[in-house]
């Protein structure tokens, strides 16, 4: 589903990250571990098409991500990759529902309020659709970003430290949610974290500090 | 959801900032609009009232004053000229027509003008009730004069000496109102018109005091329809309005009159142009002041957007991660600036019209000059375009910053 070939990334001459070969199959879950500064976020950004690698290829399905033009890559990301970050980055000028509609608008998929409510409902956020983002708790906001990531039925879900700013209870919920939703959409799920609470829940693990 | 509603939501999310920018913009636009409305209406009215008058001949003095007093009835006359001398000019073959005017009295602040029916024809005046005068001391009122003075056909009044309200009354000879003109937007609206001989009669009476003899019998005017009245060598008129037979008149007549007679000739076209160039300095200063306000408004929009963008770089990075292209973010920021300044422009136009109308109502003379805030001119579209352009320019740099947001770097900063 997603494969990496001869990937390396660095600033000027300094090599930060180098992964010769990696593959994650459809509906497989992978945990990327590593201390801060080990390049987890960099790897995730490269996989998400946010950061051009120095060398190497990233292929999702049949698409070579970095052979696309910037504009095409933005569209591809919007339609096929769901991103979840450590902090719930929501557009605070918009309501919860409009935040999700925005994801449909920017990815170029049809704007479908029914789908928005469906996803919110799945994450127990149906009653919050009209609410302002600021009125939601941290945990709720993170659930909204997950809803946003799932909205366009992505083939790949990338989560960067999704639990770092949450308490145990919410952290557990978020991980369960990500796993079960990824299964539902048959999406590959990649989570980068140094959170010990998450570790035992995943079989497939990649430790960047060790390599 | 689209870029416009997205930008609009951002604008709504900081109402104070938006209000300040919109207000600043509207202030500049309002000032410009008042200037546009004022000058376009003044220009139009001045042009309308000088139509058909090639030359004004009157007593020596300021040519501008001659025009203002005898064409627009604003300033005081420069003095009087001898009837015979004026008549002599009209015999020149370059003169197509000449309309004599005799000023000097008023009633309730409205000027009593001695003239003939040609004067009404010049402005295409129509009678709305009663009839035009033919006997001395019969008067016809302009629409505004009749309404303000509350006079109607059959009423009588005493004229007052001079051209302002407080002057002495001629309490010997009464004027009889025999007709009222329809409103037509020309100077006629604010005048009281009669025979030249009526004006003479009122003044002669003061000097000669016919012992006890009442002027009961009506005298028919000697030239009420056209031409000059018969008078002796003592009789005077204030001015005459001349139309040339050919363009040659413009070359020869003014020089001939100014050099060879005791009178002066002034061209309304030339003098109004001069008046406008004098007024123009003040108008230009106010206008540049308004443009400075608009520039400051643009700067204020720029600064608030530039600052807001620092907090918004996460939003922008998220939008990119959701699939938005660089171009879309660029347009998104531009739209925001344009909405703010266009709102300011629209509010400014409303404010400008309101201000103009308030000015027109609070200043009595404005009715005579014919200004109002309730007309629209084409230039307002340009003003709207200017506001749009200001928004575009002000948001250009913030938009460019949005365009080159490095998503990965911004998202990794936490």
Folded structure, characterized:
The complex is a heterodimer of chains A (211) and B (414). Chain A is α/β, with parallel strands linked by helices and 211 residues long. Chain A is globular, with a radius of gyration of 17 Å. Chain A contains 7 helices and 9 strands. Chain A has helices spanning 40-47, 70-80, 96-107, 113-122, 138-150, 168-185, 196-199, and strands at 2-11, 14-24, 29-33, 55-60, 63-64, 81-84, 156-160, 188-193, 205-207. The model of chain A has no long low-confidence stretch (mean pLDDT 88). Chain A has one domain (2-207): Rossmann fold (3-Layer(aba) Sandwich). In chain A, the strands form 2 sheets. In chain A, strands 6-7-8-3-9 form a 5-stranded parallel sheet, with helices on both faces. In chain A, strands 2-1-4-5 form a 4-stranded antiparallel sheet, covered by helices on one side. Chain B has 414 residues and is an alpha+beta fold. Chain B folds into 2 domains: 3-46 and 280-412, no CATH class; 55-266, no CATH class. Chain B contains 14 helices and 12 strands. Chain B has helices at 3-13, 15-50, 63-70, 83-90, 117-122, 143-149, 196-208, 248-260, 268-321, 326-362, 366-369, 379-394, 396-403, 407-412; strands spanning 55-59, 81-82, 95-107, 110-114, 127-130, 138-141, 156-161, 169-181, 191-194, 236-237, 239-244, 263-266. In chain B, strands 3-4-9-6-8-7 form a 6-stranded mixed beta barrel. Chain B has a two-stranded antiparallel ribbon with strand order 2-10. In chain B, strand 3 (95-107) and strand 4 (110-114) form a beta hairpin. The longest helix of chain B is centred in the last third of the chain and has 54 residues, at 268-321. At the A-B interface, helix 1, helix 2 and helix 3 of A face helix 1, helix 9, helix 10 and helix 14 of B.
